[in-house]
Amino acid sequence: MGRYAVIDVGSNTVRLCAYDVPKKKSARTGKPRKIFDVKESIGLSAFVEPPAGGFSADGSRPGVMTQAGIDAAAKAVKRQVRRAQVVCADQVWVFATAALRNCANSDQAVAAVEEESGARVDVLSGEEEARLGLLGARLAFALDEGVLIDVGGGSTEVTRLFADGGVKGKSIPMGSLSSYRQFVDCVIPTKAEIERIGASFRLALEEAELPVRDESDLFGMGGSVRAAARVYGDLCNGGIRSNVLVPEQVDAIISYCEDAPGPFAHGLLRVCAQRVHTLVPGCAIIREVFRATGAQRMTIDKCGVREGYLLDRISRL
């Protein structure tokens, strides 16, 4: 049995997950068992200053990570590395996604995090993030054909899986937190702001030219997808939760927000306070994926890029 730790520097959180992984004689390892999971919510994307002319959905005008953001990330990673050492991990790996990948001063920010924490930071490209997300998702589902989405804080990975084994993916630099920061003036988005998020994501998805039309099998992973299912269950369905989302449920969340923003905000504070500002922007993105694919249900996968990254790194040992 090997023990490995993965630190995920995301747009919303810096998260440490430690796993016990059975060792086998073959080149493949057994399914990892999570034994430790702790996250620090620092909202890294909120520290990115917009460029002149504002952010663009295609990422062509990246913002700059402030020194405060760099310091927050560096200190959080350092604390997580220490926690990984406490649980006696054989290996500790750190990777970063959209927040550090997409900022104009990415190299400077990553160097500062590495110097403070003493750990190497692997900045994943959008394509690599999508590939590893698929690898992790397949721990729970066969995923032979359909569309897989991962709605993160700073980006959304959309991957089309073909019956012949082919894969085509795209990372769209719009996530729940970055969309909140770009389009929302207060805490709870208005109907007009929700529509702007949806329109911007719809345009970015069309420009990605992914063949996602007329897909019946839709799979979702990431904090925004899981939170949407949890919020629907607790606020709209009498506390009954499910690992499946349908378009009408996402519409119900958004309608509740638009029609009764006050009660909706109070409900969110009770169910998932850390996502009170990002839940609806994430739902606006999910709704556009439903519309683009025509799918009538989304199966939610609890595994994702962290597990995929873990398996990928172990395979190189």
Secondary-structure blueprint:
Layout: E1 2-9, E2 13-21, E3 33-41, E4 48-49, E5 64-65, H1 67-86, E6 91-96, H2 98-102, H3 106-117, E7 121-123, H4 126-137, E8 146-151, E9 156-161, E10 167-172, H5 176-183, H6 191-208, E11 218-221, H7 223-236, E12 244-245, H8 247-259, H9 261-272, H10 279-293, E13 298-300, H11 305-314
Parallel strand pairs: 1-6, 6-7, 8-11, 11-13
Antiparallel strand pairs: 1-2, 2-3, 4-5, 8-9, 9-10, 12-13
Name its key features.
alpha/beta, Nucleotidyltransferase, domain 5, six-stranded mixed beta sheet, five-stranded mixed beta sheet, 13 strands, globular
Helix share bin: 40-55%
The major β-sheet equals:
6 strands, mixed
Low-confidence segments: none
What is the overall silhouette? globular
Name the CATH homologous superfamily of the largest domain: Exopolyphosphatase. Domain 2
> N-to-C SSE series?
EEEEEHEHHEHEEEHHEHEHHHEH
CATH class of the largest domain: Alpha Beta
How many domains in all? 2
Number of helices: 11
Structure commentary:
The protein has 317 residues and is of the alpha/beta class. It has two domains: 136 residues, ATPase, nucleotide binding domain (Nucleotidyltransferase, domain 5), CATH 3.30.420; 160 residues, Nucleotidyltransferase, domain 5, CATH 3.30.420.150. 44% of the residues lie in helices and 21% in strands. The protein has eleven helices and 13 strands. The strands form three sheets. A six-stranded mixed β-sheet has the order 10-9-8-11-13-12, with helices on both faces. The longest helix has 20 residues. The radius of gyration is 19 Å and the shape is globular. It starts with a strand and ends with a helix.
